[in-house]
Task: structure prediction
Amino acid sequence: MKMKTLPALVALSFLVTVGTAPADTVKLPKSGALASLTFPDSWKVKAEGDNFEAESPDEEVYLYAEVIDTDSVEGALKESVAYLEKEKVQVKKGTEKQSKDTVNGIPVADFSFDGIDKDGPCKISLTILIVSKTKCISVLYWASEAGEKKHVEELKAIYQSIKPA
Result:
């Protein structure tokens, strides 16, 4: 598996830390699951129906994921940018990077950006997991630069353990 960008890996931050027992396994959607994700014990996870939110214990890494139709990817990107603007996060123009990957048989497309939030520089990513011909899972990732560095091993393990349901 190629890991071209940390945000692509991070955007899917939902799994097990090396040496930490998994806490919650989230299936999306809850009924008729398309993929499963597992978080470390210390992460705060709130799952509801077709979406979930997850946050590192120090609140330096935030994730929001939802099931979307494959023809809604552009809309998901626009909604994510609007959400970030509402949260006073500025996306730095000209910093967009795109990459494609496959994790455990699931095609992944990632759009990552540099940004600035109330605490300083941050990393932002929208990652799309293509789980069927008609459904995707959109994952918005937002983290401080320090938080991304601190949680890098967790995030790598998370990315690698995403699985089709």
About this structure: The longest helix spans residues 73-86. Residues 1-22 have pLDDT under 50 and may be disordered. The radius of gyration is 14 Å.
